[in-house]
Target: H-2 class II histocompatibility antigen, A-Q alpha chain-like
Amino acid sequence: MRLCVFTLLNALIYTGAQAKYKDMHIAGCFDTKQGEDMYGLEGDEMGHADFSKREFVMTLPDFADPFSYAEETFDTVKNIQQVCKDNIHAYMRIYKFPTEATAPPENSIYPKDDVIPGVKNILICYVTGFYPPALRVKWTRNNEDVTEGTTLSQFRPNEDKTFTIFSTLSFTPEQGDIYTCTVEHQALPQPQTKMWDADDEITVRSIGPSVFCGVGLTVGLLGVAVGTFFFVKINNCN
Model:
């Protein structure tokens, strides 16, 4: 599998506001499967091409100012993909299938919100520092594969030419549950798995207030004891 990536990075300067912003367009293609095309601003994704639906999808959050790309954007993306694939085939002929550079990913797993048993939450698997942008993310709950309620973001480019991706899992935490996020990538000698134990999060939250109350009570009793000691000593002196 060979990857050809074009990255266009423009700095737009608005003289009236005296501000400088980075407008980014990244297009990537493979010789054996569908590629990706994403537009972003200041490192955040604004929209990407959905080749299965054959349309350009805006991904700005609800609170952002309304913005949309031209209707012909998806047609432009298709043309870029074709040029990218043509270049891949040309490079493969010229360089005689050179060895592709790789970088292994690092992943971590954490909940979006504070963990409360029985209350819906989201687990986030954060994967970064990998190249090329092709990998597989798998979730399990108590050693059983989970696919329902999972999402996978678009690849996000890093400044060092590696990539970042997020996978999420909607879940309801219960005591005894153990979740894992496993990443498979060609730069890894074996799949990389990170585990999240619901009991650890729930226990920390439940014992936290008790610990603070216990410490506060101990300090309070110590203060009373010290005060009583000095009071007795003063009376003895008198």
In short: The two ends are 93 Å apart (CA to CA).
